[in-house]
Every structure is written in structure tokens, then in C-alpha cells.
Predict the 3D structure of the following.
Amino acid sequence: MSDFKIGIRETSNVNVIDLKGYLDAHTAPELEDAFQKLVAERKYKIIVNCKDLSYISSAGLGVFMAFIEDVRNNQGDIKLSNMSSKVFNVFDLLGFPLLYEITKTEAEAIGKFMSSKK
Amino acid sequence: MPSEGKTLTIESRTEKLRLVREFIADAARNFGFDNESVHKIALAVDEACTNVIKHSYKFAADKEIEVAVHTRNGAFEVIIYDRGISFDPNAVHNPDMKEYLQHYRKGGLGMYLMRSLMDKIEYKSPAQNRNEMHLTKYLRSQKTN
């Protein structure tokens, strides 16, 4: 039985990571691998769709922190969408909305990438 | 009168964290906490156990972590026991999150979360390589916290 699943897909010139299940110290390395793969392919416009993400701990938050600087230095971004209030509360507790754009829907996040095209 | 404690002992492997969360969530729910508080407690205990694996045991997978629940008078206390390297929690300051995020810092958020999610935290090292992290949440605080 898998506690955690990651999917990567491309849409509207943006790469979406779909998260499903629990993001903790055990599963965080898988998210790290996903980011590493995208960055290696120079894909820096990334949306993390959290619709099916049921849990996140600081290990998961740490993965975002590990990649955001490099991604932004390459004119990209990591935007987060479709978060449940339970997951959002953990982000909010740590002030992450100060650093990350968190949208209600994936479409909104795509829209933000489009409108900031250089 | 303190109620009987429940204990779960796990190997020091991150794959066991889910088991710990489920054990704690069950106990917290039975004690009367609402969903939000149950989640907060489970997350705090997850962070504590993750710290033991990372820092006390340096990822050695053959050690033990004991997670005990004690309840009395509206207080729900979780004690995480380990036999690894001790540390001084007073030396771990909560980061200034604005500065932390601005400078893309990494790590050290586990303690911050534990302190934010629980009502009381106490760390004891009663003997060399015997450590206890006590995390307490009060039933009465769940509406305001």
C-alpha cells in the first residue's frame, strides 16, 4: 500500500506536480526527486497541485525551500494550488504565504505564470 | 487520577512515522479533541520523532523510539523516549520566519512547529543517552489555540 504518490505532467507550458497522500520525512525524498528531475530538464515553471495532499510536515516544507531559490534564479517559480485548509494551516503557521503564491485552483496558478511572462 | 498510559514502540525508521501519527490521532480523538487539535498533536509528535531519527540517532535504523500517552485532568501528554544523542532545546531558537524565508534558509522548523502546535514542551535527559520529549496539549485550549 502506497502512502504517497507523485505525478508529473505538463500543461500550458507549465509543469504540474500532483501530490497524493502524506508528505512526511519518509516520503519527502520522492518529492525531492521530482523537483530534481524538472530542474535537470531546465523546467522551472512549476505548480504543485495539492488537491489530494492530506498531510504535510516540516520535511515536506523543507523540499520546497531547497528548490525555490534556484527555480526563481532561473526566472521560474513554484506555485502551490488546491490546498485543503488543514494543509494550508501548516503553511500559514510558518508564514509560507509570504514567500509562495498559493492559489485555490491550478488554473489560477497557470494564469499567474501567463501574466508574468517576460 | 492519571489514566493508564498507552505506549507504542517503533524502530527508528521514517516509514514508521505514519504508524505513530495514527496511534496518537486515535488516542487524541478518544480523549475528546476535535479534528483540528488531533491533527496538530499528531503533527507535533511526528516532528519530535523525526528529530529523534535525524539528530539523536543520526538515521541509524536499528534503534527504538517509545511513544507514550498519559492523560490526566484535561491534559494530554505525549512522551517520546529515545536513547540517542541528547540536545539542548534552549539552544534551538525559533527562527524569525520573515528573515528565514527571505534568505531561503533550510531546516530547523520542527521545533518551531512543536512549540506552535502544543501548549507545553519539556525536554529531559535523566541519564546519558536517555532522553524524553514531553509534549502536552490541554483540552480546554482547543477552542482558542
Observations:
- Chain B touches chain A at residues 13-15, 17-18, 21, 36, 39, 43, 46-47, 50, 53-54, 97-98, 101-102, 104-107, 109-110, 112-113, 116-117 (CB under 8 Å).
- The longest helix of chain B spans residues 35-56.
